[in-house]
Amino acid sequence: MSEEPQYRPLQGDAPWDEIRIRTIPVFWDSTPWHEWRTKVEVTLIRKGHALYRREFGSMAEAAAWVPWGVATVRETEGIDKPRDLDYCAQPGCSEKATVFYMLRYLYNTEESLLQIQYPTYRAFCESHSERGHSNREDSDENYVQFEGEFPTFDTDRDGDLYPSWYGWTMDLVGSRCK
Q: How many CB atoms lie within 10 A of CB 124?
């Protein structure tokens, strides 16, 4: 069992949060022609940072490339999961994370409770730190806020993992708090 805290992205979070297609004017200054032309650039962006760019000769080519290209880039470039752990976990937000939470419970996509194998955290900016109550895993009741260093973790005699900060322990798998 790993005791190194692990980042857990929000369910449905994608490797990029924006796909930009734009036309760029280019002046060709080559003998014997001097003329304006255009190129079209597709950029995959996450948290305001460009992850991948590709140029095309027309808007139609660029638009046709997107569905196939996104899947291919994900495999060939290794852009398959968020790596920007200093930023807010809310998709589309490019603010630095300032509020850090440990998760009490983990759930799969069907909202079934999962066994926690390691301490798990998420980080948000101040404006996205209030999570609401509509999702079991991403809800205010499922987070314990901490500041500074990651909390230390202890195991009990049965090998269950418990955080031990602020002088109390919390059962991460069961339904009781001590």
A: 22
User: 54 φ, ψ to 5°?
Assistant: -150, 140
Q: How far is CA 37 from the centre of its chain?
A: 38
Nearest Cα to Cα of residue 143 among 126, 131, 128, 125: 131
* Residue ranges with strand state E in the chain: 6-7, 18-30, 33-46, 49-56, 99-103, 106-107, 113-114, 120-124, 143-146, 153-155, 161-165, 168-169
The overall pTM is greater than 0.85: no
pLDDT of residue 58: 95
CA–CA distance, 32 with 23 (Å, rounded to integer): 25
How is 56-91 classified by DSSP, letter by letter? ESSHHHHHHHHHHHHHHHHHHS---S---TTB-SST
Low-confidence ranges of the chain (pLDDT < 70): 1-3, 31, 80-84, 148-178
Cα atoms in the 13 Å half-sphere on the side-chain side of 98: 10
